Structures are given as structure tokens and as C-alpha cells.
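Q: For a teaching session next week I want to show students how multiple molecules come together into a single three-dimensional assembly. I've collected the sequence lines for a complex. Could you give me the predicted C-alpha cells for the whole thing so I can convert them for display?
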Amino acid sequence: MPGQKPKFYLTTPIYYTNGLPHIGHTYTTVVADVIRRYKRMHGYEVVMTTGTDEHGVNVERAAKNAGVPESEFVAKMAAAWRSLWDELGVPADEFIRTTDLRHVRTVQWLFKLCRENGYVYKGHYTGQYCIYDNAFVNDAKPGDNCPDCGRPTETVTEENYFFKLSAFQKPLLDFYKKNPEFIQPESRKNEIVTFVEGGLKDLSITRTTIRWGIPVPGEEPHVFYVWFDALTAYLSAVDGPEYEKRGMWPADLHLVGKDIIRFHTVYWPAFLMAAMLPLPKQVWAHGWFLMDASKMSKSKGNVVLPRPIANMLGMDALRYFLLREVVFGQDGNFSYDALVTRYNSDLANGLGNLASRTAAMIDKNFGGKIPKAGKLRAQDETLARETQSAIGDILEHFAKMEFARGLESIWAVVSAADRYLTKEQPWALGDSEADTQRKATILSTTAELLRIVTALAHPVLPESTAKIWMLLGQPGSVSAVELDGLRWGQLASGVQLGKAQTLFPRVEKSEAIERIESMANEELNPTAPIPAPVTTPTSGSAAAAAPSASEKIGIEDFAKVEMRVGQIKTAERIVGADKLLKLTVDIGTEIRQICAGIAQFYEPDSLIGRKVAVVTNLAPRKLRGVESNGMIIAASVGPEGRPVLAGFPEDAEVGARLK
Ligand code: MSP
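A: Of course. Below is the structure for the complete assembly, covering every listed component.
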């Protein structure tokens, strides 16, 4: 239809619900959000899908451990994923859960099409099976033990439905040839082509040994096996069988981590070919964010969480770091040190400082109204020309997913503005007419450069660029700027600057890192010491992760908490941590060091000799860099959560257990 916007449909993987998001998952979702924002600023109607992958043995197990039905378990987890994306400013346009009815219908429909077209048959699957966990162990050989429980596996044969993947070797290779952009980056394409050229085995796509899955209609107890179920979510999210009406399918871009590229570039197009449905246009596999050179996992204790970073430095800082630090497609190391360094240098001292000082000078010299440029000198024209030509280069980098280079080029423009100001020294000019004219030219040139940089950086830094846009008093919203029409010379002059904004306050590195780590600690171990001592007041992170107050626990759960009578031996303040006291506490069998968030309400000396209730079997952790080995119990009183230490009106022996 004339005048209609072109469509762009992109997806992130749907994430497993047996864990919560860390920085690796955040990376994929943030990149998707950045692309979504760029595409919108290029005039596209965009839909971004993310969601949760909720079936399979792992969820069955996790729900059993939590003592709740699977449906309840996944509902809670899906809500947590969804609300975290909302909180981080990367909300889904479509959030698909594999337990959604619309998804169940789509999977069953896709299976029916594949079957009607002759690509599905009944056969037998033989594999190593763990009878204790009731699950096949992928890639295990006879004699191998179960990786989960360590007990021997048995060779078991079960009836399955198979997908004739072998029939798609040639069609897939032809497809890759005709669509050279389908697999990105190029290096991954070679890996996949070699794999397919090596021959494809048929794929078992149903199981009778798993209960928690989508039933194969009329073939119960068969349920669909993970990947046939999961990949179909991309189609379910845009109306599955009614995809033509919605007009979003095929996907223009599937963003995935390198770990799951084969499923997306071999299985998925084969399923769609078998069903005679349109194929996605591109699959882009990015690398991993590693921690100390190894993959993050909760059991290794090396996961980096997004929320504490967003609370401390702002979500824009995290987005900037993820895209700027690593070449998209390659692995990169995550380090708090590098994160805070980039924040201070590029955001606080770079863009933030340029915006604040430009606004301050316009405020001082022109009553807060953006001045009109006077006669241009060669250096003004050079800066204008260079900025204009950078626009095209920057947009091209982003179109090619070269985010790091795109940002580098934007920041080269910021540095050019800094150099220009240093050279032209508008602050050293007087009040004569000529000087005022010159100041007007310099400041309007800088403001125009800043406007362009703000629009170009908006998809990566949505919050702070919206603030700079308002600060510059520019009309409309920065997200409505059409990037294709962005040119030097469109600055609205004569307009009043908006209110001064805090953009990126500089932070002291070691303190910022300690605060982030301490918030992460609390989020990972939600039984925080009283009362959430070192998080920022707005974070609410510990509360969000804690079970709801109305939830009941059994006596056996309570018995897991060991509480004893302790006596405080020493108490001192911790430099740089206003709310924390470092205590040593006698718990009968030993003297423990414990940190407590009570410094604002208790004088250290007043605590010495006092008997308190102590949780003694908490795993030790560091608070603001100080080890804390236990927790002191206190009531949290009043709206500000004033701690009141629990005590013993009658004498209680040190070390006695509380029951
Ligand atoms: N549920 C499947 C995907 C099904 S898609 C039809 C799955 N889920 S996952 O939760 O394990 O992870 C999915 C994605 O998270 C990875 O492909 C990757 O995009 C991202 N990452 C997880 N850890 C990561 C890093 N450490 N670094 C970067 N991305 C990583 O696989």
C-alpha cells in the first residue's frame, strides 16, 4: 500500500527459564533493542520478539526442586524475565512463552504441515538414559554416567517422530549460495556450510519420556522435543498460522549467540522448507561475554548481573559498554574496571561534559537561547564538513552491525568538538559586537554538532540523548528524527535551552565497583543483611528477588537456618560505607566478623557487649570489600526501615541456638 512503512521483524533467542538473566543474555537483548531503535529512525515499522523457552527436563527438575508445579514455576520465571527487560528499558514488542496457547497451536500446525508434506516419520530413537532423572543424556555413550546425578546411564530405545533433515542437505546448500547474507558473520557461514556438506542425519523431534512439553495431537504421550518447539516461537509471536494477515513473517533478523547458530541456520530453515513457509532473511551470531576468560555460570559464581550496573551507572552506560568494547561477532571479556573506565572517559568526560559546558556557555552568554551563527571562518566550515561526512560513515557502520566502529566514529566527532572549543576559546572572548558574534558562531556550531551526535547515538543511549535533546531545546523527540534526512544545518536557533540535566556524574572507580558488586551480592543471595545497607534507595533489587511474604515454608525449611545468640565484641565504622558497621561477634564456638547495615542508627561503642540474634550458617560474602560471615537480625521499623536489633530480655547464653 502506498505510504505504508516497510516492516522489519527481529528476534532474540527465547531464554531458558531455569535461570535468570545475566549480562550475556542482556547483551543479545540490548543489541536487538539498538537495532530496533535504528530501524525505527530509518522509517521502519519494527517488531522485536523475545521470550522464554519453558519446556523440557531441566524445567521439570527445577520445578521439582522448588516444590511447585511446572506451570507455576515457569509463570514466575517468565514474569521475572519480562519485567527485567521492561525495567532495563528493552521491552519486548512481542513476549512469547512456549507455554502460550498461541505457541502450542503454531507448533502443532507446523508439525502437521511437515507431516503432510512427507517429511515426518515414526521411528526408534536409541540413546543413553538416566532412570533416576528420567531423561535421555545427550551425546552420552554406553558406559557413561549421568552428568547430573553421576549414576550410570542405560541404553534405552523409544518410539519417536523423526524429521527428515537428511532430505535438506542440497536445498540448504543451494539456499546459502543464493542468499549469501543469510549467515553472518562470514566466518560462521563457512563453519555451517562445512557441517551441512558433511551430511545431515534425521532428527528426533518428539519424546515419550518427557512429560513437560507440547503434546503431539492424537499421539500422546509424545511431546515435542526442545528445538522443534523453541524455534517455532519466532513464528508464533507474529500470529503463527495467520502470519500472512499480520504481515511480519518472515523474520528479517534472528540475533543469536554463537552457541546456537546451527539450530537457527540448519534445523530452522529445514523445518520451514518442509512446511513450505517463507524463510528468515538473516541469522546473526554474536560472540560471548566472558568473565576471566570463561563462560559465565551461576555455579562458577562468576555471573555479572545487569541490574546493579544499571542502578549504579545507568542503563545507557551498560549499553554503551557492551556495544563499544567488543567487535560484534567476536568474544569479549567483561570487566568492571573497563566498564567504569569507559563510563568516566567517554560518557562523563566526553559526551556529558561537551553537552553541559556548551549549554552553560549558551546560558551565560545568550540568556539560554541558541544563537544564530555569524560569518563562518575556515575552521567552523571544516568542522561542519567533517561532521556531515561522518554521518554517512556512522550510519553505514551501524547498518553493517559494526557497532564498536560506529560508536568510535561518533566519539571522534565529540573529540573534534572538544578540540575546536579548546582552540577557539569562546570563554576568552569579550563583549564587543565582533566578539559576541564570534561566540555565537562557535556555540551554535558546537550545538549543531551536538544535535547530530545526539541523534546518531540515540539508539545506543536512549535515556541520556533524550535529556540532551531537551537540553538543546530541539522540537519533538529525538527518537522521531529521521536518520536518512539528518544533515548539518538543521539546528533550531533562537529556541530556549531546556533545564540543565545530570547526564553522567563522574564516579570514583573502586567505590563504584564495590557498590555494584555489593548490589549483585544481594541480588544473588536475597537474604540480605539488615536492612539492604548499601544499595541505592531506588534500587529495590533485593526486594524484587525475594519470595513474597505470603509464601509459606515448611518447618524443614526453617530448620535450615541456624540462628544463635551472639555477643558483640568490637564495632567500627567502614571508611567509604556510611551505612555499614564492621562487627566482631562471639557466637560461642568462634568469633565472627559480620557487617551490618546499622551505622546510621547505632553508635559503634553503644553496641559492645550487647547480645544479638545471629544467622550463623549463611555463606560468607563481601560487602563493600569487607568480608561478612553471618547476619545480625533486626526489625525494620517505619518507612525509612530503621533497624532495631533483636535482643534477649532474659539472659541467654552466648552460642545458644534459636529455634
Ligand atoms: N532457549 C535456548 C534458545 C532457543 S531460541 C529458539 C537457549 N537459551 S539460553 O538462555 O541458554 O541462552 C540464549 C542466548 O543467550 C544465547 O544464544 C546468547 O544469545 C545469550 N547468551 C547467554 N550467555 C551468553 C554470554 N556469556 N555472552 C553472550 N551471550 C550469551 O539457548
